[in-house]
Amino acid sequence: MAKSIGGLESTVGTLTRQWRDQDEKASVGRRDLHQKIDGVIAEVHGLKASVTAAISDIAFMKPIVDGVVEARQQVTGAVKAGRWVYWLIFGSGGGAAALWIASHFFTVTLR
């Protein structure tokens, strides 16, 4: 009987130690998990600050970019207009079109 009770005490002691060890390991695991989550939260806050700064920089640059795009469109239009004028002056019979246009807009009188 004493041997059976001693075996039960030993088994209960072993189970108690296992449970205590498992609880300690679980506590360590939970602590590590919370530390990792805290690290992720800190990184997200840093990203939020970076995105906010990027948005303000983009808002500052947008009018400049729009101005550059408009200037490119004006240059493209000027190049096309210059080609048309060049074609009208030199491309159609040595300036016949330019003379015809000029004759309709300007009156030349002899004195």
Query: Which secondary-structure class do the elements indicate?
Result: mainly alpha
* Count of folded domains: 1
- Beta-strand content bin: under 5%
How many helices does DSSP assign? 2
Helix content: over 70%
Which residue ranges are poorly predicted, with pLDDT under 50 across at least 5 consecutive positions?
none
Mean pLDDT: 84
- Number of beta-strand segments: 0
Question: TL;DR?
Answer:
By secondary structure, the chain is mostly helical.
Question: Your description of this structure?
Answer:
This protein is mainly alpha-helical. The chain is built from 2 helices and no strands. The protein has one domain. The mean pLDDT is 84.
Write the layout of secondary structure elements.
Layout: H1 2-91, H2 96-105
Feature tags:
90% helix; 0% strand
